[in-house]
Amino acid sequence: MSTLPPVNINRLLTTLDQLLRIDSPTGDTAAMEHAMCERLAPFGWQVNQTHRGNVLAQSGEAPKRVIAAHIDTLGAMVQFIRDDGRLEVTPLGTWSARFAEGARVTVKTRQGPIRASLLPLLSSGHAWHDAVDTQPVAWSQLSARLDRPTSSRKETLALGVQPGDIVCIDPAPEFDDSGYLISRFLDNKAGIACVLEMLNLLQENNLTPAQPVLLAFTNAEEIGLGAGTALPRSIKELISVDIAPVASNQASSEHSATLGYKDALGPHSRSLLDRLDRIATEHQVNVVRDVFRHYHSDCSSTLTAGYDATTALVGFGTDSTHGYERTHQDSLIAVTQLLTGYVLSN
Prior knowledge:
Blueprint: H1 9-20, H2 30-40, E1 46-49, E2 55-58, E3 65-70, E4 75-81, E5 87-92, E6 104-109, E7 112-120, H3 125-128, H4 131-134, E8 142-146, H5 153-158, E9 166-169, E10 174-175, E11 180-183, H6 186-204, E12 213-218, E13 237-246, E14 257-262, H7 270-282, E15 287-291, H8 298-304, E16 310-319, E17 325-328, H9 329-344
Parallel strand pairs: 3-12, 3-13, 13-16, 14-15
Antiparallel strand pairs: 1-2, 2-12, 4-5, 4-9, 6-7, 6-9, 7-8, 10-11, 11-17, 14-16
């Protein structure tokens, strides 16, 4: 029988909803960094921030254990202003233009935010008929239609729009009564919510990590950086909390935590993963094992940066990753329980 304190799912979901509503695409994460510093302050851990915006919190001196969860999300940037006044955009992070079509967005200009829609170049069947269905899927086939009266490059420039302006995609969260959670950017706001819930459980139950732990809320993971720029060289093991793709060719489930044994870089530490598996068994946490073919995480960036540390991937099972994502609260509960069991273990 598990001795872990029960997860407060209502608090976890409230935290997740609040985090989802903070825009934090790679390259524009200041609001999320500030929010994380504020949320971590009440727990009494030592909090600091790196030059690149990674937010670090540690429970004691010289921690060897790290739990990492990235704060940046996918997004876009203004590439060029077209002659018709609409915007050509380039993606921030790796995601298909197929999942951007129709999204509502905010263009952050120096003169203030402007709302817009990301649309295919041919966006009306009444005008283009079957060509709407045969145009290619590519970022070059999208444009941002500004919610302003503009039909020329000159008029759009006069609105203050410039190449390099960040385009924030609406997350559009919806939490279903059945326990399903649907939103863009569950990757990785859901992972962060699990780590914060773990901290709440430790604090309200007067529990202390068995060994000093460093929590690394990393930046620019979506472009391959993340923990590789953030951590002290003295660390010995790192757990990356991130999304776990649910698909017909994967073992991950929306109702369990996932132990990721390999990603695109290569295998992770069998000894650390086996230890997590034993912790899950001890505390009756539902976990599955999976292997990811096209996947990058804070584990990968840490190993690529040359850290001499063991790594393991813990994921929440999610359908349509890097699209309009869906997970279930069961998975978030399992991840939170597993992380809690890990920090309390010797």
